[in-house]
Specification:
mainly alpha
Length: 153
Amino acid sequence: MPLLISAFVLGVACGLRAVVGFAAVSWAARRQQLPLEGTWLSFLGFRLTPYITSLLAFGEMINDKLPKTPSRLVPAQFGARVVMGAFTGTAIGLSHGHLVTGALAGLAGSVVGTLAGSKARAFAARLIGRDLPAALLEDVLAVVLAVVAIVML
């Protein structure tokens, strides 16, 4: 059960920020907390992969604040978040012998995170009066959820 919860929570984090879950899984694989050696996802544990994925996640957080960044609800953005959620769930599932259930839990979490994150950010932005503080709060929530999901493994 902790496996499914972790995959789901990481999926939610991917729904908020697509690459954050990917970076968290990479750090867990590098620290041997997520045994992926000998699998097709073993590259996640390579020496430089966590740094590269973290840099990508940071870049995504910056890009999210730009005025021309499209809504997460447009098909390309929504699809990317769902794919990343399924991918991170797959990594967790694969490391514990439950590839399909991990992928499905990550996918479901990313759909929930994408839809709920959009509503929550819009609500917070209206409440605060500006989008930037709401977006920064969402960044923090995505990172915290990813860390919690990895710690729960």
